[in-house]
Amino acid sequence: MEHRIERIKKQLHAQSYKLTPQREATVRVLLEREEDHLSAEDIYLLVKEKAPEIGLATVYRTLELLSELKVVDKINFGDGVSRYDLRKEGAAHFHHHLVCMECGAVEEIVEDLLEDVEKKIEDEWQFQVKDHRLTFHGICRKCQQKNNANN
């Protein structure tokens, strides 16, 4: 974790920002709960446990800054709630998600599934792709098994 915090600190410094204690507390929560796709409010409640003096507005500003600097990605799974996801180290693109429409579970797909599609877009439309996001909405394995057991 300390290695990742140091890398994020360097990213901030490269853009003339500092890793303040409030920002570091927010980053630590994101690192500790990396698989959870937390909302700003979720992050705030967890940061507050570590640093009770931090306000919700500070957490929002920190998340917006980290999003602008491409340290985190702001995502929405169609439920009206923005969630924050740390970018994977060394990842050329944002990773993909599988969202269960029944239980709300979210799984990540780290493998880039769209290389051929990107190449086609660049070749046929002369459009330079910088990033992409792909979210599949469906029913997860657990819910399918539960549904099959109930039928």
UniProtKB/TrEMBL annotation:
UniProt xrefs under PANTHER family: FERRIC UPTAKE REGULATION PROTEIN, ZINC UPTAKE REGULATION PROTEIN
Top-rank taxon: Bacteria
The family this protein is said to belong to: Belongs to the Fur family.
Keywords, sorted A to Z: DNA-binding, Iron, Metal-binding, Repressor, Transcription, Transcription regulation, Zinc
Residues bound to Fe cation: 115, 132
Protein name: Ferric uptake regulation protein
Cofactor: Zn(2+); Mn(2+); Fe(2+)
InterPro entries with a match to the protein in the record: FUR, Fur_C, WH-like_DNA-bd_sf, WH_DNA-bd_sf
Organism: Halolactibacillus alkaliphilus
One Pfam match: FUR
